[in-house]
Amino acid sequence: MYKLIKTEGRAKRGELTTVHGTIQTPVFMNVGTAGAIKGALSSLDLKDIGTQVELSNTYHLHVRPGDDVVYKMGGLHKFMNWDRPILTDSGGFQVFSLTALRGKIKEEGVTFQSHVDGRKIFMGPEESMQIQSHLASTIAMAFDECPPAKAERAYIAPSVDRTTRWLDRCIKEMQRLNSLEETINRNQMLFGINQGGIIDDIRIDHAKEISERQEQLDGFAVGGLAVGESHEEMYHILDVTVPYLPKNKPTYLMGVGTPENILEGVDRGIDFFDCVLPARNGRHGHVYTNAGKLNLWNEKYMLDERPIGVDCGCPTCRSFSRAYVRHLLKAKEMLGMRLCVIHNLYYYNHLMEEIRNALDAGNFAAYKKMRLEGYKEQNNK
User: Fold this and answer.
1) Which of 144, 218, 271, 274 is catalytic?
2) Residue 161 is among the residues annotated as catalytic for this protein
3) Measured between alpha carbons, how far is 325 from 316 in angstroms, rounded to an integer?
4) Which of 48, 227, 256, 272 has its CA 20 to 30 A from that of 262?
5) Distance CA 176, CA 244 (A)
6) What is the pLDDT of residues 319-351, one digit of tens each?
7) What 3-state DSSP class applies to 37?
8) Candidate list 89, 144, 218, 271, residue with the active-site label
9) Which residues of 253-273 are buried (b: 16+ CB within 10 A; e: fewer)?
């Protein structure tokens, strides 16, 4: 159940109660695609850095180790030793990202060629719900198609219509699965997804259409952004779309983004975020601070005794200098990558905590301005 605690403009401060604990929103979900954070982080590390929600991917876990294996091991929570909420992406994004490995999109679903061993995999709405039920995640996502952002109306309009039909099939199958005795998590939540590229009226009409199903859905996502459009175009789509999604349900902006994106998203009514950027950038020595992003490969950090973030309380910054982490990266020691990923994910989780505190205090607008000015100052150096 979602509780809207307060608002500031369009920004929302809320909480979502689940069978695996209560999620304080706005929240950033740490992405563990295959059940682990890339960068050698375990579920124990996630707790240390304040993670509320872990996100895994239906397609990737279906391919390896197989959702049947996870089911036999008692579900994803038990398998990866994580007792807090998990959201599973539906595999719908792979319809977009694995174009070279999939067949034609049909009403029934999509056939993929496994990126691991080449075997054929079919996934439609029912299959996605069945896999996510096997994984026993807290929140399942509806199966959808994510059209390219710059696709033409002639492509996007029928794609969105099909996504709506797929949503109805997802709802029906999830209700069936949650009623079965052998289902591990019979309280599995389901979020619907808004699509429409960067075409205003398609986005708005689809938001209205899926909102009519709010009694059967636990939340709503805005998908198909951060896939080629500009930041300004993304913010515009949020401006025109989010007002047509139910305010009494959480709203999730999929695959976004930078700290700046998050601040702008919160300002437009977004509750949930996820993105691979903090972990991916960390693995390459790019780390986030309140003064902007730093590249630890730069020679100027060779003798820098300061922590990555001078005001950061993460395990990395409490114990190690920029100079030492840079040395590890240069020496190709895995520890350097791990320390950067720990820092970045802590930074994102702590940023969300500060955002929630600002909303609680009624000064989010001032907080947002202060943070954006700090990032801009570093980027201009």
Assistant:
1) 274
2) no
3) 9
4) 48
5) 29
6) 999 999 999 999 999 999 999 999 999 999 999
7) strand
8) 89
9) bbbbbbbbbbbbbbbbbbbbb
